[in-house]
Amino acid sequence: MSQPFQTKRTELRIFRKVPGDLQTSPTGLYDIQLLSCRSERLLDSRSLDPLDSRKPGWEALHVNFKELGWDDWIIAPLDYEAYHCEGVCDFPLRSHLEPTNHAIIQTLMNSMDPNSTPPSCCVPTKLSPISILYIDSGNNVVYKQYEDMVVEQCGCR
Q: pLDDT (tens digit, 9 = 90+) per residue, 76-96?
């Protein structure tokens, strides 16, 4: 079964400006140069179909750490695509949405009486990590992978 989209490659390359040992600046931080940080994705054709806008699926959610005021401690990336889940989980639920048994029953109840039972929700069912280069409270440069930061797949739950 094909995924709504897949991560092909994430690349973060950091190079020293001059050869030799890393030298600290007057602030005590390492002087580094970020040459590239990118993520490439393959999107399915469903995302391009305007008639599919009500179906459960993922939508763009661009996170900009600079706009959040976090660029004073996050070195890279300064932004990334997080995506978010959106759409209506109508009865009958399609199998590719991998609904739970509870979601199937809840959606059936909602189809019979929408006032008594809310529909099931379109939520992330698969998430992937991103790597962040940041300055910690001790002024150390830290490279860390943060789990569950990018929506890879949505479903009805």
A: 999 999 999 998 788 887 777
The pLDDT of residue 54 is 53
- pTM for this entry: 0.62
The pLDDT score that the predictor gives to residue 43 is 38
CA gap 3, 34 in Å, rounded: 31
DSSP per-residue codes, 26-83: TTS-B--EEEEEEEEEEE-GGGG-GGGTTSSEEE--EEETTTTT-TTTEEE-SEEE--
Domain 5-156 CATH (choose: 2.10.90.10, 1.10.3720.10, 3.40.50.620, 1.10.357.10): 2.10.90.10
> Per-domain residue ranges for the chain?
5-156
